[in-house]
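Fold Annotation — chain and its backbone
Next Lines — sequence and tokenised fold

***
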Amino acid sequence: MSKSPQTAYTRIAQILQKWPVDHVRPEPVSIQHYLRTHLPKAQGGLSESPSPSPISDSSINALNSLLKDTYSQRYPLSRKLRFPASKPDHYDVLLKEFEEAPTRTWFQRIQKRFGGFLRLK
């Protein structure tokens, strides 16, 4: 049984409000931007010819389950995968890099790039 398009738009709007912002990925390729540009604006009141929702209920449910982090709770990572024996802090360093990258200045980005070229011991 399909719900009304207005209900689908409401559910999508709620998901968009709660969805975290990815500071590393450019805004035009974010899921928020995609949903806002590909979904027609919900019109106030009832329209004469109800059109089906452009996103299926199962897709909305999938977005909602991703938002609630259902899959990482149901299928947790093993310690061997999270902390590889060859470099146990790899993912911690990677997360730190993702957090720092959006706030770097132009000079810090150039400095980081040249630091990657020149490895002094």
